[in-house]
Every structure is written in structure tokens, then in C-alpha cells.
Amino acid sequence: MEITIRESHRGLSRSSEYHFVIEGNRLIHISRFSISQKRDYDMVKYVVDLSRLSGKRVVEISSSNSGIFCWAYVYPAKDLALEYSQRRKEKVPLSFLNSFELTHLTYREKRFLQTDWKQYYVPMIEELRRLFATLKNLNRESPYVFLTRLIKCQIESQANYPLSFLIPYSGNARRKSLEGLTKGIHQLWITAHILAELGKAGKLRNINLDFEQSSYYAIASFNCRDGLCSLWYEFDMNPFTMCEGMLWYRGASATLRYFYQRVESVLHGKRLRRTPLRPDIAILQGGASCNDLVEGFKVRMIIECKNWDYGYWAKDIDIQVVPYKEIFQPDIMVLASLKKVSKYVKEYLGRYGIVVVDEVYPGGRGIDELLSLVRML
Description:
Elements lengths: L1 E7 L7 E8 L2 E4 L4 E7 L2 E7 L7 E8 L2 E2 L2 E6 L13 E4 L7 E2 L4 H32 L10 H8 L14 H30 L3 E4 L12 E5 L2 E7 L8 H9 L3 H17 L10 E5 L4 H5 L3 E9 L3 H4 L2 H13 L3 E6 L5 H8 L3 E4 L8 H9 L3
Parallel strand pairs: 3-10, 15-16, 16-17
Antiparallel strand pairs: 1-5, 2-3, 2-6, 4-5, 6-7, 6-8, 8-9, 11-12, 12-13, 13-14, 14-15
Helix pairs in contact: 1-3, 5-8
């Protein structure tokens, strides 16, 4: 009996579904069992001889336009011939897949699992669970943590693999998803450590654990040497996306117009095509909400996070990192690197007044060095 299985291949941030067949301790994508397949844009149709799946079970992974669902469905492979609502689906956590090998991964991806993922990101995720629990206790009035769906599922699911690796159809799609996932984990881990440090010192005043982009409010406000400061996650100053699109309905104040004039000047002077206006972490004087930003803001510190080897982000120095320094004019500009950075690169960035702090990972010396700079504010 031949059946047709349809999949939408749109990554994990849009509506998609993927089917894997369980064989022993391996998960094999349904494409390996297909007789033929036909692609129509993002939709792929696989024709499968159901007799090849006799006695096997299927794992189904799904996502919506809000992101991946934090669970999977398992059911007998023969149920693929039934209407979707009639399949005998068992809902399981994504950690159910921990004991299986994802056979579509490349040698390089499998090596990443045993090296960087195990050494850096698994400890970060474990620490984030503990740090978020502590921060929730500090913020009893609103103890909710808002994260993008992929990162939220990664932290809460207990999965021992990056969820990006569940994308079966494209190594390039997996790579792009993994880049965003690991960068987000690194940024969150650094931000959570800053919050925990401020809480330990008794400096925190208000906490707003909303780690989604273009938030209207700072992550936290805290006491600093010159009064009150605010901590922003992915501080977005891109026109019409900043502050939930505030400029669409409020327009730019004289202060913001002056800021964007400086942006244009830097772009023109450096002949940049894209506008670097969303540093990973920013600390402002005052500025606890977007209402304050309209009236003007002073940047005390910017922390730009890099979690891959220098060769991967070297191109960003002149088109992103240095422009951040010139556009935002922070008192302290830090490049926080997970990996070690050469003395030459540190000296080069030092000439622009940019401090490089490397080995910023659990157990690395960098996180203490970074927190010592925050304590100077």
C-alpha cells in the first residue's frame, strides 16, 4: 500500500512538520523510506510503501508561526494511512528523543554535540534554570520569564541536543537555526548573571523578565553610581521596530532625530550598507522604558556577545562592533567572547576603546571579569 506524506519545510520558527521513523536507537527521516518525492516551494510530498514501515513507530515534530511545539507525538507507522485526527498519538516531551541518534546529522554536527554543545551550552542551560528560579523569587509580583519559543523549549524540555538539529531536510537550515539558538543562550546566560550579581548586591529595583526583541521596557532598573540605570536585552534602536514600533505612531523627538543623524553620519563615513542598531545588551543611565528614550538617553555600557571562533565573526568588527561604539558612544564598550581571542585582536579593538573579555562561559574566567566591569557603573 502506497501513501503520500506531506511535510512543510520552513524551519522551526514557522508552521512545519517532520516525520521520523524509529529503528532501534535511531531516528530516520521519512524521506529515507520514500519511493518518490515532489517539492512545491516549502511543501514536500513523499510517496511511501507502507509495508516498509511494518511494525515501526513514527515520531512527529511540529511547529507553528510562533515556533516549535515543546513536545512530540509518537504513534504506529501504519496510522500514517489514517486521517490525522484518527492516529493513536502519544504526546511525549522532547527529552524522549535523548536516547535516539539523529541519523540526518553530518559528522561535523555530531562532533559539535560532543564538544561545544556539551562543554559550553549544556552547563549554560543548567545554570539558566537555576538563575531564572532565583530571579523569579526576586520578582514575586510578576515572576514570568518571556522567551522566544525555541529558547524556551530548549531550556525547559531537558533535551540533551540542540533543538535546531531536529530540522531534517537541510544542513544550511540547521546551521542558521543553531547560530540563533546558541547566540541566544549565550546572551541570556550573560544577562542572567548580570541580574543575579545586581540582586546579590541589593541594587535591583524593578525586574521585567521579558527577553523578547524590541521590548517597551528594560529588563531591570538598578542603582548605579549616578542614580538609576537600566538594563536592556537586545536594545533595539532600528526605526519602526524599536519599542514595539513606537515611531510608527509617535514620531521621532528632536533627541531621536539627532541620534539618527549621527547614525547616518557613521554609515556614510564607513560606507556601510546595513545599519547596526541592536546591540545584544545595553545599560543606560535612567531609561527604564521607551517613554524615557524619547526624551534622550545616555549609554553607560554596551556588551556585544560572540559565541563562535574569531574567524567566524571577524568580519563583524568593522561593520558592527566598531560602529556600535561610534553610534551609541557608551562609557564602556565590551566584546564578550565565549572563545579565546588573540592578543592582536584585543589590541586592535583597544585602539577604538573597546574592551575584549574572552572565555565567557561557565567555569571560564571571563564572566567574573565582565561582572567586575558592570560593578564599576
